Amino acid sequence: MSPAAALMGLHAVLVGVIAVAACAACAAKLPPDPDRAPGLARELRLDSERRDFLHCARNDCSDWFRVYAPGPGRLELVVERADLSTQSTVELVLGDDRADRIEAVRLTDRGQLRVQVAAGYYFVLVRTAAPERLAYVLRVTFQARRAPPRTRRSNKDKERPPRIRVVEGQLVEAESRDGAVAAVLFRVASPELLRIGSRGRLLRGDEVVGEFEVTEIFAGGGVRAQVLGSVGSRIDAGTRVVVDVVAPSQ
Q1: DSSP 3-state assignment of 123?
Q2: Are 246 and 162 in contact (CB under 8 A)?
């Protein structure tokens, strides 16, 4: 081999080495992926669409996002490849607030996740190991969980106020203290309807002359009641006794 040929061969080798070194230097100078980790995740809005791409040969193998669910409901994620010239695989991952995997799907054209979630933040990861540039569209929707329908109660089920009925009694005796009527004794036909504390009235014709409160109920229908306040008329056999009682439910 002539000296000239040897020199040309050496020059070619040197050019190749320099080119490889330059490419290696270029690769080393690639900037880090800005959303390569959960701590660098970008915010996603609900009911939104985001267009992005992965390019693993350019140090962009994964995109991290974060989305907030305002309450319990269904979170739906859809990823569609924008360019189907290759059959490269993309993975869509949903993680909890600590980025632990909840559910994932692999896709070559379109993938979807539907997950019931509680209120809180969730991480979304789109990644690939393919070297070529892969454009995609990410859609995020949320449907709040509906509250169970309130059952309407019918009129029969609604709480009704108690029905009051009047029980008439026969005056037996009036007890006086310091010249005033303090208590009355009377008899009723249905003592089981009365309760201690039942209120009643003393009537002269239709005029109320006094009020009382039942304090004792005796066997056989006898009742003793304490007079409330003063009595505005003489108490005798013509005085009517009426007691307000709660009517039994039907």
Answers
A1: strand
A2: yes
CB proximity list for 22: less than 8 A, separation 6 or greater? none
Task: Please check whether residues 101 and 181 belong to one and the same domain.
Answer: no
pLDDT in tens, the chain (250 residues): 555 555 455 444 444 444 444 444 444 567 788 888 888 899 999 999 999 999 999 999 999 999 999 999 999 999 999 888 888 999 999 999 888 999 999 999 999 999 999 999 999 999 999 999 999 999 999 999 887 777 676 665 556 666 778 889 999 999 988 888 899 999 998 888 899 999 999 998 888 889 999 999 998 889 999 999 888 777 888 889 999 887 666 5
Global confidence as pTM:
0.50
Same domain flag for 130 and 224: no
Does residue 69 belong to any structural domain of this protein? yes
| Rounded distance between C-alpha atoms, residue 59 and residue 209, angstroms | 101
Closest CA to 52 of 39, 65, 40: 65
Closest CA to 116 of 155, 71, 75: 75
Number of domains in the chain: 2
Residue 123, CB-side half-sphere exposure with 13 Å CA sphere: 22
